[in-house]
């Protein structure tokens, strides 16, 4: 995803979290592998957050990392998870936790998603 659209996505997460009094979100960045950025305050997503990776996107390693964190007690076992992608990812992603997808408007996933799909205008 281009940096401007990623900025909008981060702003949407921050706005939603702040409106719901969420004190922190667990942030996993994905490209060819997953990068755990740890717990991040929503307001830091707007002002002080740098993404990691940004190569070709493979999402399943990020989902598996969240599963491992949940087993260790470092993430809620049931989620919720918001997966942000431009849709250019592998042809199958399995997310067992409660989840939703955030894609740029007009983009699609290469599979039928189980979670809700939200779009972000470019």
Task: Describe the protein in words.
The mean pLDDT is 89. 16% of the residues are buried. A hairpin with a 3-residue loop joins β1 and β2. The chain has one domain. The radius of gyration is 14 Å and the shape is globular. A 3-stranded parallel β-sheet has the order 3-4-5. A two-stranded antiparallel ribbon has the order 1-2. With 122 residues, it is of the alpha/beta class. It is 29% helix and 23% strand.
Quick description:
The chain has 122 residues and is of the alpha/beta class. It contains three helices and five strands; from the N terminus they run αββααβββ.
What gyration radius follows from the Cα positions, in whole Å? Answer: 14 Å
Reading the helices and strands in chain order gives HEEHHEEE
Mean pLDDT: 89
* Main sheet summary: 3 strands, parallel
Low-pLDDT parts are: none
Distance between the termini: 10 Å
Strand order of the largest sheet: 3-4-5
Break the fold down into its secondary structure elements and pairings.
Layout: H1 3-19, E1 25-30, E2 34-40, H2 42-47, H3 60-71, E3 81-84, E4 99-104, E5 116-120
Parallel strand pairs: 3-4, 4-5
Antiparallel strand pairs: 1-2
Annotation keywords:
alpha/beta, about 120 residues, two-stranded antiparallel ribbon, 5 strands
């Amino acid at each position: 995803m281009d940096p401007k659209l990623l900025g909008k996505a981060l702003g949407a997460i921050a706005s939603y979290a702040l409106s719901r009094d969420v004190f922190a979100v667990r942030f996993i960045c994905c490209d060819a592998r997953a990068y755990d950025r740890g717990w991040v305050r929503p307001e830091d997503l707007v002002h002080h957050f740098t993404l990691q990776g940004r190569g070709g996107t493979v999402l399943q390693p990020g989902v598996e990392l969240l599963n491992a964190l949940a087993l260790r007690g470092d993430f809620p076992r049931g989620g919720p998870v918001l997966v942000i992608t431009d849709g250019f990812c592998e042809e199958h992603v399995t997310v067992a936790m409660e989840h939703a997808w955030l894609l740029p408007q007009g983009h699609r996933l290469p599979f039928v998603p189980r979670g809700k799909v939200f779009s972000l205008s470019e």
